[in-house]
């Protein structure tokens, strides 16, 4: 008889992890606190409840990174994708699902599996022994959150994300922007040029502030901020406090010289900082925001140098419990300080239903292999699942780590193809072709064991 795998949280990630492990012959217990203990966003006691939109986003596995993630999960007998496909609603190129039928069907499939039991209870402490996966999501209960913080240190488990928009590096106009760290600080040339700077004159700054003040914003959900939110102001709130506030905050122009126009002193500067080791993504420093997505794109494109920017992700601030995975997890998703515990889902610092389910799939397979006495290495970083796990356990900057959704900026580049917008279609096809081959290899290697 194999050891039991315990999974805390029966959301998108926990359900997928349980399915994968049970299909590999491992007995599983899911510990799910709902409906006894509620969250502010979940409405039912069902497993895999979709708390907000009913979309799994693009289903295009040739031209879209999240579509590729769908494809990879389907190839791996993913429960979440199978049931999403069965309850699909018409939505053009996107995969939208009937949310109630979807969660009910996941619950039914899990409870009907002979190797899976579901205990409706809240787990409040970190388990000392046994094989565990923590997949408690963005709304991890307070007591468990505190127990995790005690283990990891308070600065390595966040209760809010404060996401600044992230731009694809090759869409920044470098005839306007220039690379320089403030006051040329840094030991190496690379450090002295770690930031990209977009200059604004007074008129451009005033237009930008007007656009920020007028933009459509979202509100926090009721109960979302209770007892937690402690600062990290959205840029539009800073602008509301005074038109000059941003110019003395994240947009201050000091210590910088425009290499394109050294004689011109900028009135304000927007800085972008490298967001991944590959150097393909840059985040706009200090630009966390509650503006709606359409408004963000419109406002950020008024920044000189970003007129043609493409965004790998837009900004946001949400209640979101997540680990500083680059420092805390190994590449097998285990907590370095307690390797009997894995983490999966949104709590690892990925963002979104699909990404969370994919991290559940991976953790379930890795835990099952370990219980069966094998080691399962992560998939290649050129696959969508591999790109995500590589990012959160090593590729991302640990100091500024914020939740990430899957995007081609996380993929190692394919060399010899045209960059920028014009080469995009061929480049994306090359990424997805390469990923499909490597993902199939990864699955095939497990099948022969
Ligand atoms: C308000 C809100 C809106 C969102 N909107 C979207 C959206 O529109 N699209 C999107 O893609 N993503 C959205 N997300 C992110 C979304 O939550 C994740 O994409 C996805 O649900 C994460 O899956 P998960 O399995 O990691 O967490 P969840 O699906 O949240 O599952 C975690 C489970 O763990 C349980 N749990 C927590 N603590 C304990 C404990 N101590 N003991 C036992 N059980 C516990 C919870 O009850 C829950 O069932 C939203 C998140 C929030 C908070």
Key phrases:
single chain; 449 residues; alpha+beta; FAD/NAD(P)-binding domain; Elongation Factor Tu (Ef-tu), domain 3; 2 domains; six-stranded antiparallel beta sheet; 33% helix; globular; binds flavin-adenine dinucleotide
Total separate domains: 2
CATH class of the largest domain: Alpha Beta
Structural class by secondary-structure content: alpha+beta
| Helix run count | 13
Fourth-level CATH superfamily of the largest domain: FAD/NAD(P)-binding domain
Largest sheet: number of strands, sense, barrel closure: 6 strands, mixed
> How far do the termini sit from each other?
18 Å
- Give the helix proportion (percent range): 25-40%
Strand content: 15-25%
The CATH architecture name of the largest domain reads: 3-Layer(bba) Sandwich
Could you spell the SSE succession in H and E letters?
Answer: EHEEHHEEHEEHEEEHEHHEEHEEHEEHHH
Named CATH topology of the largest domain? FAD/NAD(P)-binding domain
Total beta strand runs: 17
The small-molecule ligands in this entry are: flavin-adenine dinucleotide
Family: Belongs to the MnmG family. TrmFO subfamily.
Protein name: Methylenetetrahydrofolate--tRNA-(uracil-5-)-methyltransferase TrmFO
Binding site for FAD: 9-14
Cofactor: FAD
């Amino acid at each position: 008889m194999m050891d039991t795998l315990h999974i805390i949280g029966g959301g998108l990630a926990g359900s997928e992890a349980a399915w994968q492990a049970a299909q590999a012959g491992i007995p599983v217990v899911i510990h799910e606190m709902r409906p006894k203990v509620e969250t502010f966003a979940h409405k039912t006691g069902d497993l895999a409840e979709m708390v907000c939109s009913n979309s799994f986003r693009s289903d295009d596995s040739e031209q879209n990174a999240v579509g590729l993630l769908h494809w990879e999960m389907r190839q791996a007998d993913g429960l979440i994708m199978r049931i999403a496909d069965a309850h699909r609603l018409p939505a053009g190129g996107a995969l939208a699902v009937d949310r109630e039928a979807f969660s009910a069907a996941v619950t039914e499939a899990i409870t009907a599996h002979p190797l899976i039991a579901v205990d409706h209870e809240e787990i409040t402490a970190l388990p000392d022994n046994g094989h565990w996966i923590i997949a408690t999501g963005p709304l991890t209960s307070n007591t468990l959150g505190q127990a995790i913080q005690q283990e990891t240190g308070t600065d390595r488990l966040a209760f809010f994300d404060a996401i600044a928009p992230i731009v694809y590096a090759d869409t920044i106009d470098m005839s306007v922007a220039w690379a320089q760290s403030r006051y040329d600080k840094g030991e190496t040339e690379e450090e002295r040029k770690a930031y990209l700077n977009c200059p604004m004159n007074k008129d451009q700054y005033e237009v930008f502030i007007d656009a920020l003040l007028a933009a459509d914003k979202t509100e926090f959900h009721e109960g979302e901020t209770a007892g937690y939110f402690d600062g990290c102001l959205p840029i539009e709130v800073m602008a509301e406090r005074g038109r000059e506030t941003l110019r003395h905050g994240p947009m201050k122009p000091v210590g910088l010289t425009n290499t394109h126009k050294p004689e011109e002193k900028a009135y304000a500067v927007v800085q972008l900082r490298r967001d991944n080791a590959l150097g393909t993504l840059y985040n706009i420093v200090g630009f966390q925001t509650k503006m709606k997505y359409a408004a963000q794109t419109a406002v950020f494109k008024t920044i000189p140098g970003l007129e043609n920017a493409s965004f790998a992700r837009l900004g946001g601030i949400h209640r979101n419990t997540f680990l500083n995975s680059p420092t805390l997890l190994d590449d097998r998703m285990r907590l370095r300080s307690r390797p009997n515990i894995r983490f999966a889902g949104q709590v690892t610092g990925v963002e979104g239903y699909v990404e969370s389910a994919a991290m559940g799939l991976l953790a379930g397979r890795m835990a099952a292999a370990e219980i069966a006495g094998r080691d399962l290495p992560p998939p290649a970083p050129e696959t969508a699942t591999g790109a995500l796990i590589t990012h959160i356990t090593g590729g991302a900057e640990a100091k500024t780590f914020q939740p990430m959704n899957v995007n081609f900026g996380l993929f190692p580049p394919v060399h010899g193809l045209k960059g920028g917008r014009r080469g995009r279609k061929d480049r994306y096809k090359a990424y997805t072709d390469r990923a499909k081959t490597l993902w199939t290899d990864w699955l095939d290697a497990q099948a022969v064991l």
